[in-house]
Design a protein that fits this description.
alpha+beta; Spore Coat Polysaccharide Biosynthesis Protein SpsA, Chain A; Jelly Rolls; 2 domains; 7-stranded mixed β-sheet; elongated; glycosyltransferase
């Protein structure tokens, strides 16, 4: 169910996107604009809409737009991650310079080698653009020279009609124009960034970053290897921290441009993800990006929304090496064992466990562990914790009816108040660990939620 945005950019981004055919500029004709407008008049749940999207599903070509490089030059080599953000002149406040500063300051020297930041100044006021480019070039000159920062602009002539659009959701005309232009801005930014890197993450122009966010993103991507995903989310706010494969950017750019006047961009993104067969949100905690702006880019309205899952300095994503997970507890509905061993905001939920019940992790290969943390229960179900339990590790593997199992276990610690954390495990366990087991030591009438199992290895793991 779609929820209406609170205060303009609590759901909406303040940024914009598209890719480039910089070296083959072709002006969009009036006929092209008319076709885009006609296509966008169809509701997104209509049969024609679905058919049109299927026609685009295999489309990988860029939108024919000639961009202006306001700072920086074309990349000489492909990077791992492009960070895209778009900015317009605000009536109150300007956070763009602080956002760029946060991106670079929160990245290590090694991380900086793998990123490129693309700023799309999506403003038709040339005086404002010139002033902003001057500020960016002076403050971040070494990043521009190093090829880590580019500032681009899309000429107004490439934009479709922005006046007299449909007033969906009873939005006032200026609101419709704002959100419709925003969709086009995003489309042009995405289009430009499609070939710059392997992955792309969208930020807004009023964002603060967590320390070493790139390393955390890389770890998540590695952990999802072999699984299908369209969008990974590293913030629950608006269009902040949404990650894509770069090869999906042309389709997403065309999608936003085709339906630019239909609805806000974050609603369109939900449709895009669903149409590419990712039904559920895949969001990671803690959040890596925080909204810091006080005033919206739309009319300068107040926007105090914050992501309460954001952690700026303490972010430490676990390794959680590949493993087989199983339990003999009675699982409730689809809250299966795998959901506890993931940084996604999900959990395992079992019906009242008995003494001797267990939750087992069998690693694909023996590992050395540095730290283990297990959290049970949730804020709204604080009694569904493990009241009496222990954590054990095992070494010897045998094959049984349920697959690979460990024959001997060593107890590392007991749960207190439903939680357990053990450090310096490699100094307490002299063998490479093949299994880890959460053991219920006393029956309880309450159900059990295992909210998260986090494992940090003391040596790199091949995932």
């Amino acid at each position: 169910m779609l929820l209406r945005c609170i205060e303009d950019d609590t759901c909406l981004g303040d940024t914009y996107e598209t890719h480039h055919s910089i070296f083959h500029p072709t002006k969009i004709t009036d006929g092209d604009k008319q076709l885009i407008r006609e296509a966008a008049t169809h509701q997104l749940n209509s049969e024609r809409y679905v058919h049109t999207f299927k026609d685009l599903s295999n489309f990988s070509g860029s939108i024919n737009v000639s961009y202006r490089y306001l700072a920086g030059t074309p990349l000489l080599r492909k990077r791992y991650l492009t960070i895209g953000l778009s900015s317009v002149k605000r009536r109150k406040g300007n956070y763009l310079l602080e956002t760029i500063k946060s991106i670079f300051e929160q990245s290590s020297y090694e991380e900086l080698k793998e990123i490129v930041v693309v700023v799309h100044l999506a403003e038709f006021d040339s005086v404002w653009c010139d002033g902003m480019v001057q500020d960016i070039s002076q403050k971040f000159a070494h990043h521009v020279i190093a090829g880590r920062l580019m500032v681009i602009h899309t000429p107004e002539e490439y934009y479709p009609l922005l006046d007299g659009l449909k007033r969906n959701y009873n939005d006032p005309e200026d609101r419709v124009k704002f959100r419709s232009k925003q969709n086009v801005d995003y489309a042009f930014l995405l289009n430009f960034c499609a070939n710059l890197s392997d992955y792309y993450v969208m930020l807004e122009d009023d964002v603060r970053c967590a320390k070493n966010f790139l390393t955390a993103i890389k770890k998540v991507i590695t952990s999802r290897d072999g699984t299908y995903w369209v969008t990974l989310e590293f913030s629950k706010l608006g269009y902040i921290g949404k990650l894509y494969h770069s090869h999906d950017l042309p389709r997403l750019a065309h999608f936003l441009l085709m339906f630019y006047q239909e609805m806000p961009c974050d609603w369109l993104l939900i449709h895009f993800r669903g149409l590419l067969a990712q039904k559920d949100v895949i969001r990671f905690k803690p959040s890596l990006f925080q909204h810091m702006g006080y005033y919206s880019s739309y009319k300068g309205a107040e926007n105090k929304l914050k992501d309460d899952d954001f952690e700026e300095d303490s972010f430490d994503l676990p390794d959680n090496p590949p493993a087989i997970l199983h339990t003999n507890m009675n699982v409730f509905e689809n809250y299966e064992a795998s959901k506890a061993y993931s940084s996604v905001d999900e959990y395992f939920w079992g019906k009242a466990p008995s003494a001797g019940d267990f939750y087992m992790i069998v690693f694909e290969k023996p590992i050395k562990i540095n730290r283990i943390k297990v959290v049970t229960g949730t804020e709204d179900r604080q009694n569904d914790v493990l009241h009496h339990g222990a954590l054990e590790v095992g070494e010897k593997i045998v094959w049984g009816k349920k697959g690979r199992q460990c024959t001997t276990f060593l107890q590392l610690g007991e749960f207190k108040n439903g939680n357990l954390e053990i450090t310096n495990v490699e100094h307490k366990v002299l063998f490479d660990i093949n299994c880890m087991r959460i053991l219920v030591t006393k029956s309880q009438k309450e159900w059990l939620i295992i909210r998260s199992i986090s494992i940090w290895t003391s040596q790199p793991t091949n995932q």
